Amino acid sequence: MKQLLVPVISNKLVMPETHLLTVDAPEIATQARPGQFCMIHCGEGYFLRRPISVHGVSDGLSFLVKVVGRGTACLSQSQPCDTLDIIGPLGNGFSIPPGVRKLLLVAGGMGVAPLAFLARTALLQNLSVTLLVGVKTKELVYPLHLLPGGVDLLPVTEDGSEGKKGLVTDFLSELATKSDQVFACGPVAMYKAMYRLKVKKAIQVSLEAWMGCGMGACYACTTLTRQGPKQVCRDGPVFEMDDILWDKI
Ligand code: FES
């Protein structure tokens, strides 16, 4: 884990209010694993850093930055030649267990960011990857050109404007039977719905939590697990789905 001031390489608007921000940070990129995140300073006047998942490590260290408030709005305006203050990589990411050949990745909204990184990593190991992405409408579907060839992308939109109509959980059970392992990233409501389906496959989930420090010091991100309270930033953000006490969070 390093704290660095790094130059911005590029900033592209890839979906509404969502920027693909790439920085030159090889010291972090070479260490980062899918599911890990960085704490990024949003600029002058912002005290707390924002936790942002690593989206990719080829051609620079990249992040998908969704504008959700003033800090991310400021960050999304970063331009080449600006520098960003970044700490990372942080947390424990996804791990592909030995013997797993077919991965089903389930993304809710912006949860696609770390899963796109996982997809690229899995393909480099000659594994099969299906990416189920659930969003409200077709404008929010992750752009196909950002995915490596070989990923089977299955969009699901709530309004039916692209792909299947519905929610990712409407299609999870059937797709899970064709996979060896499920990896998910999305909102807690999506995870609770997935948990209720009682899918007979191991599922790793990347938990979202409000974070103050991102390094285990402030306890703002504590969640409840079968092994007791855990810190999402340090013990996670990736956990086994069955370890989380979903009815208590
Ligand atoms: Fe401070 Fe996790 S964010 S302990």
Description:
- With 249 residues, the chain is α/β, with parallel strands linked by helices.
- 16% of the residues lie in helices and 35% in strands.
- The protein is built from five helices and 15 strands.
- It has helices spanning 26-29, 70-75, 112-124, 169-177, 188-196; strands at residues 2-15, 18-23, 37-40, 50-53, 61-66, 83-90, 102-108, 128-135, 151-157, 164-165, 181-185, 203-206, 222-225, 228-231, 238-240.
- A seven-stranded mixed sheet has the order 10-9-8-7-11-12-15, with helices on both faces. A six-stranded antiparallel sheet has the order 4-3-6-1-2-5.
- Helix 3 links the parallel strand 7 and strand 8.
- The longest helix is centred in the middle third of the chain and has 13 residues, at 112-124.
- The mean pLDDT is 95.
- It binds FE2/S2 (inorganic) cluster.
- FE2/S2 (inorganic) cluster is lined by residues 211-214, 216-221, 231, 233.
Which SSEs are present, and which pair or pack?
Layout: E1 2-15, E2 18-23, H1 26-29, E3 37-40, E4 50-53, E5 61-66, H2 70-75, E6 83-90, E7 102-108, H3 112-124, E8 128-135, E9 151-157, E10 164-165, H4 169-177, E11 181-185, H5 188-196, E12 203-206, E13 222-225, E14 228-231, E15 238-240
Parallel strand pairs: 7-8, 7-11, 8-9, 9-10, 11-12
Antiparallel strand pairs: 1-2, 1-6, 2-5, 3-4, 3-6, 12-15, 13-14
The protein binds FE2/S2 (inorganic) cluster.
The site of FE2/S2 (inorganic) cluster has 12 residues, from loops.
